[in-house]
Specification:
Blueprint: H1 10-31, H2 51-56, H3 84-88, E1 98-101, H4 104-114, H5 121-137, E2 143-146, H6 151-157, H7 161-173, E3 182-184, H8 196-203, E4 207-209, H9 213-217, E5 221-229, H10 233-243, E6 249-257, H11 260-264
Parallel strand pairs: 1-6, 2-5, 5-6
Antiparallel strand pairs: 3-4
Helix pairs in contact: 5-7
Length: 285
């Protein structure tokens, strides 16, 4: 009795599956080609900037203040320099790097994630935040804590963009996250157009530790995760709450940071009036 043909081998089946996947991907790209997340130009692959938008990004990887991470172009690399603002009034966090300076491309990506529901942008942002996160934690243990939204804001938006970015950072780096360590205790008004003292007053008492947070955070390096670092009022309020947990260190990491270089570039946006709680702006394109 002859051998029964059992069909294609496992290797052949895998090859067929890969071929079908490539064909399906080609059909999808033909019908819905990947586009630059900032300007919408057709690009070679998903979550890729076009050349013009990529070249417009200002990566913040040079000398910076050891406390707030504002760029200090004239400082020596590797030094523990602090800016004048931190020397006069030290923030409650130990380092607050961002991947890029806040400009048109970085702004569009953040707003399309937050208000345009382009949740895939969280993976793009996290991918460029891996390097500063790695430098920040230095190979040690850390815990990512996304800046929380108030429950009313969360219900209306449907997701917390900082939590999505934290999830992607965990996936890319293995650094764990805790979405429930820090809570938004009260809803706050928009910080747009407010002076520093008024911003600080608005966010005072906005955050509190969750039940059992001290046991989870004691001795840890906590890293706040947010999309945009502008005035810093929200990050400072959140960091003060985390300091009460007994954490060994509290830092912050954001996608984009408002810096003087961005203002000097001719960007027309009112950077100083913005914060991580930017006014709702629909980015649906």
């Amino acid at each position: 009795m002859g051998d029964v043909d059992s069909g294609p081998s496992a290797g052949a089946a895998d090859a067929i599956l890969r071929g079908l996947q490539r064909t399906g991907r080609a059909l999808v790209d033909y019908a819905l080609p990947p586009r630059c997340p900032a300007c919408g130009t057709i690009v070679a692959g998903d979550r890729q900037f076009c050349l013009a938008c990529w070249q417009s990004l200002h990566f913040l990887d040079g000398p910076a203040c050891a406390r707030c991470s504002i760029p200090l172009p004239d400082a020596l690399p590797g030094g523990e320099m602090q800016c004048g603002a931190c020397l006069a009034d030290a923030p409650p966090f130990d380092g607050a790097p961002s991947a890029v300076a806040y400009g048109p491309a970085a702004r569009t990506v953040a707003l399309r994630l937050k208000y345009g529901r382009r949740v895939g942008h969280a993976r793009l942002m996290a991918g460029l935040m891996v390097r500063p996160l790695t430098s920040l934690v230095g190979g040690g243990e850390a815990l990512l804590v996304p800046v929380p939204l108030h429950r009313w804001r969360l219900w209306s938006r449907g997701f917390n963009q900082a939590a999505l970015v934290a999830d992607e950072l965990t996936r890319l780096t293995g650094v764990p996250h805790d979405h429930d360590l820090l809570l938004r205790a009260k809803a706050t008004a928009s910080l747009r157009g407010k002076g520093r003292r008024e911003r600080e007053k608005i966010v005072a008492g906005a955050f509190k530790l969750a039940e059992g947070a001290k046991a989870r955070a004691a001795g840890c390096h906590l890293v706040l995760i947010d999309d945009v670092h502008a005035s810093g009022a929200t990050l400072r309020a959140a960091a003060r709450a985390l300091k009460r947990s007994g954490a060994a260190r509290v830092s912050a990491l954001c996608w984009a940071r408002v810096v003087p270089d961005a203002l000097a570039s001719g960007n027309i946006f009112d950077f100083a009036s913005l914060d991580s709680d930017m006014v709702d702006e629909r980015m649906t394109r």
